[in-house]
Specification:
95 residues; alpha+beta; four-stranded antiparallel β-sheet
Amino acid sequence: MISLTVRMRFDEADHDAVAEMLCQLTPASRQEPGCVHYIAHLVEGDPSTVLIYEQYADEAALERHRNTPHFRQFAIGGLYLKMRERQVERLQLLC
């Protein structure tokens, strides 16, 4: 099992555009084979920060996710162009 958190910071002026991109990316990602969870969050009290929790069955499923048309469109071609900062944490499952 592969689990990640992705924290991204954006300019507050991009809030609506970022939210729309995430609302397109999230359901498409959830339909991918091997995607266990894909949950996008806005951070309360901080309209410029997004946190995404992702979980995949294995490394191959994560790699497939990164190569989908919706990831290329909404992440690489959208979110990545607007983000100011990005932090990815790979998590180790305890139980």
